[in-house]
Amino acid sequence: MKTCTCCKQEKADSEYWNNREASDGLQSRCKECSRRVRREWGKTDDGKAYQREYRRKNRDKINARKRENPWHRTEKGKVSNRKAYLKVQREQPEKYKARYNLNNAVMLGKIERPTVCEKCGTSGMIQGHHHKGYAEEYWLDVEWLCASCHGQENVTCLGE
Predict the structure, then answer these.
(1) What is the per-residue burial (b if ≥16 Cβ within 10 Å, else e) of 66-89?
(2) Measured between alpha carbons, how far is 59 from 41 in angstroms, rounded to an integer?
(3) In angstroms, how far is CA 50 from the centroid of its own chain?
(4) At CA 112, angle to CA 107 and CA 94, rounded to 5?
(5) I need a labelling partner for 102 at 20 to 30 A (CA). Which of 10, 27, 72, 144 fits?
(6) What pLDDT does residue 157 have?
């Protein structure tokens, strides 16, 4: 048994992460507090900047891990993706309608989805970026970008 330095509760050793440098071999915070502190830090400007930089430097490593472990195909992943999809549908109906109509146009053959990114030339799964917005007249007016370029464009658009 050990007392957490954060929540001051006494918990079993299994409730702490290992730490080879500590005298007892365990972290001083319990797992629950460690997760909470990490989540809070991730929401700060420093945390967000660190995460952005890490993703930029380790893009290949992250993509390889995603290919090896396709979480989105597991039952839990499917449920999570469905929740996120319904949240967009409920909270951002104009974005949902634009995506829905674009996907239907692609499926019906009215628009052809290219196999390479218009910005960097990378091949793979290409996404439609609604660069002019989600108004009905722009539903099918998209730039075809890879996930990386699409993310960068969205950050650029939000920054304007």
Answers:
(1) eeeeeeeeeeeeeeeeeeeeeeee
(2) 22
(3) 15
(4) 65
(5) 72
(6) 61
Name the token pair of 2. Answer: 């050990």
d(CA 139, CA 156): 20
DSSP state of 116: B
Give residues with Cβ within 8 angstroms of 47, minimum separation 6: 41
Beta-bridged to residue 16, according to DSSP, are 30
Per-residue pLDDT of the chain (160 residues; tens, 9 = 90+): 999 999 999 999 999 999 999 889 999 999 999 999 999 999 999 999 999 899 889 988 888 887 777 887 889 988 998 898 899 889 999 989 999 999 999 999 999 999 899 988 888 778 899 989 899 999 999 999 988 888 888 776 655 4
Q: Which long-range contacts (CB under 8 A, 24 or more apart) does 124-133 make?
A: 128/99, 128/102, 129/153, 129/154, 130/95, 130/98, 130/102, 131/157
Helix (H, G, I), strand (E, B) or coil at 123: strand
- Inter-axis angle of helices 31-42 and 45-57, nearest 10: 90
- Please tell me whether the overall predicted TM-score, pTM, comes out greater than 0.85 for this model: no
